[in-house]
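Consider the record:
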Amino acid sequence: MKLAAVRKFALSLGEVTEEPHHSFSSFRCRGKIFVTGPPDEEHIQVFPAEDVREQNLAMYPEFMEKLLWGGKVVGLRISLASATSSAVNSVVRAAFELKSQAAATRKRAAPAQVNQTQVKTRRRAGGA
């Protein structure tokens, strides 16, 4: 599998953008990274939920390994040369869905921003 195929699949998912992330390519849903691609284009790093990560590690040890950050497992490192497109697409979709749900939840939970000009105007006019 090639990074170009991962790119095509990731960008076919809703609300996905490709943006630089240091020297990597990154695929994001509403600003949240779910896949990165190093410049060598031989690997990708995917950030699915823990249960999906563990299931994929057990099923595909020949091309998936734990991705560590500061000694903590944070995702999967996938060797594209030996990976199957069905396995990669499945875990990319799972990571996308996780970030998409998190972004939607965050958006619903965010307090409404109050326009301070409107507040001052209402106060001067005798409103609340």
